[in-house]
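REQUEST ID: PR-0412
SUBMITTED BY: lab tech R.K.
PRIORITY: routine
TASK: structure prediction, single protein chain
INPUT:
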Amino acid sequence: MTTDVERHEGVRAVGRRWFVRAVLTGAVAVGSGLELGCSAASPPTSAGLTRPRPSSPGSALRELAGGNQRWRSLHERHPDQTRTVRQELVGGQHPFAIVLGCVDSRVPPELVFDQGLGDLMTVRSAGGVLDAAVLASVEYGVLELGIPLVVVLGHQSCGAVTAAVHADEGGRELPGPLRYLGDQIRPAIDRRLRGEARVDAAVTANVRLVRSRLSRAPDLAERVAAGKLAVVGARYELTSQRVHEIP
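STATUS: complete
OUTPUT:
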C-alpha cells in the first residue's frame, strides 16, 4: 500500500550531491564529530539577533559542529536566551537548521548543539521515523523559512529501534500504533548481525533511510540540486556526547 510520504516522493534520489555541494561551500566532515573545513565569511545577522545567523549549508554545519564541541567539552554558551532575544523573536523566526531526531529525553537538539531560542527547528518522532506530518514539518521549514540544512539525527541505544529489532527477531508485530514504528524501521534491520550489533547497525541504517527519503521529496530534491539545501545524516553517541556524520 502506498503511504502518504511515498506519494510525496516523485523524483529519483539525488544521491550524495548534497555532500559535494557542502564540500564546495567549505563543509568537510571528518571522524571526530561534525568537524568541518575552513569557514566562509559570516553572514549578516537576521531579525536583529545579536550573533551572525548561518545562511548556507556549510556555515550551518560549522555552527552545529562548534556547538556540539562546546557541549561535549562542558563549555556551553547557552546562546540566544536573553530578554532582548526573546523580545526580538516576537517579530519572527529565522532558524538556520532543522534537526529531525528521536523523542528520547537524552537527546534534546538545542542542548546537544548548544543552541538557543530561534536557532533550530526541531522535529521529533520515536526513532526519527518519517510520516506525512514529519515530512510536511520539514518542508515547511525549508520552503517557508528558507532553512538551508536538515540533519537527520539518530542516537546510540535508541529505544524505538531496539523495540523494532526485538519484535522482528521474535517474528511478531509491535502492539497498537507502535506497529507503524516497527514497519518503518524494519527495512533498516540487518538480520546477518546478532544482539547489540544488530540494534546499533539498525540505528545507523535507519538514519540513512530517512535521509534518502527526505532527499527524494520533490520540493527538497529541487533545492538540494540547486545547492541551496543539504540533507545530512548524523548520530549522537550517549557515551561521548559526540555527534558525527553518517556517510
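NOTES: Strands lie at 97-101, 120-124, 149-155, 230-237, 242-246.
REVIEWED BY: pending
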